[in-house]
Design a protein that fits this description.
The chain is of the alpha/beta class and 288 residues long. It has 10 helices and 9 strands. The protein folds into 2 domains: 64 residues, Ubiquitin-associated (UBA) domain (Helicase, Ruva Protein, domain 3, Orthogonal Bundle), CATH 1.10.8; 193 residues, Vaccinia Virus protein VP39 (Rossmann fold, 3-Layer(aba) Sandwich).
Length: 288
């Protein structure tokens, strides 16, 4: 139940203190930082401005708007959806409930791909969501030919907005995995696919449960999309082409089994030592 607090004019510091206590009771992680982000959004300023002017009094309108946002966050709505933006790889990306919220683990996927991308490569981002992978690759390497695909029209609308925001040359298509594309079309296929097992649903935070199910869940064991994606990628990759995928925290054994027969299979860990990235190359002389 939301803890109702009557909006009233008060200083920045007083409002932050009150909101921090309210969010801590939810509970919300980092309640003070969250309150600062929400108040900065209402006031149209950076958090640093709040630190510099704690004595500044809010108008009644600002106090009311701030309390409405605090109540939304108290109810479990992710901060990123409330603000409509998430920073990823040094750039701001539009996000809304049609797309997953980009996470730091996916930045590891970007770094792994950038290490191995040939100049002028043709790249496909499968299940692009917000477009954070495709747009980032296009911005980091303007010589690339970047394509992106998603089955969700609302997600593609968000991705296209993000490409326009960053003036990224990405071509978007709607479709199921690699279905819209011809055989041997790409040098690289990259994907952060759905990988949450249905059995893990009860353990998810209320914030994660607000994200689109289509982009989260992948069958009872979390491997359903990998089972389709890996052979699909083998079809559209040129011989020797790179497949790069993000992994769930317990996806590794199943994904390695699915990559049997691929060349140069390797994994990369996150900061906690959990395998988060799988890389593999389509055999140059594969029989398909």
């Amino acid at each position: 139940m939301t803890v109702a607090v009557e909006p009233q004019t008060a200083t920045v510091e007083a409002q932050l203190e009150q909101a921090s206590h309210q969010l801590a009771a939810a509970p919300v992680e980092e309640p003070r930082r969250t309150a600062e982000s929400l108040l900065g959004f209402v006031m149209g300023c950076e958090r640093s401005h709040l630190f510099a002017h704690p004595e500044r009094e809010l108008s009644l309108k600002e106090a009311e708007q701030f309390q409405l946002l605090v109540e939304r966050r108290f109810s479990g709505e992710p901060t990123q959806y409330i603000l409509g933006v998430r920073e990823f790889y040094g750039r701001d990306f539009e996000v809304n409930p049609a797309v997953l919220i980009p996470r730091p683990e996916t930045e590891l996927l970007i770094e792994a791909v950038l290490e191995q991308l040939p100049e002028f490569a043709c790249v496909l981002d499968v299940g692009t969501g917000s477009g954070c992978i495709a747009v980032t690759l296009a911005c980091e390497r303007p010589s690339l030919k970047v394509h992106a695909v998603d089955i969700s029209e609302p997600a593609l609308a968000v991705a296209e907005n993000n490409a326009q925001r960053h003036q990224a040359g990405v071509k978007f298509r709607r479709g199921d995995l690699t279905e819209p594309f011809a055989d041997e079309s790409f040098d690289v296929v990259v994907s952060n696919p759905p990988y949450v097992a249905e059995r893990a649903r009860p353990a998810l935070s209320r914030e994660v449960r607000r994200e689109p199910e289509l982009a989260l869940f992948a069958g009872l064991d979390g491997l359903d999309v990998y089972r389709r994606l890996i052979p699909d990628a083998g079809r559209v990759l040129r011989p020797g082409g790179l497949l790069a995928m993000e992994l769930g925290h317990d996806s590794l054994p199943g994904v390695l089994a699915l990559l049997a027969g691929w060349d140069d299979v390797e994994t990369r860990p996150d900061l906690a030592g959990i395998a988060r990235i799988a890389l593999a190359r389509r055999p140059r002389f594969a029989q398909r």
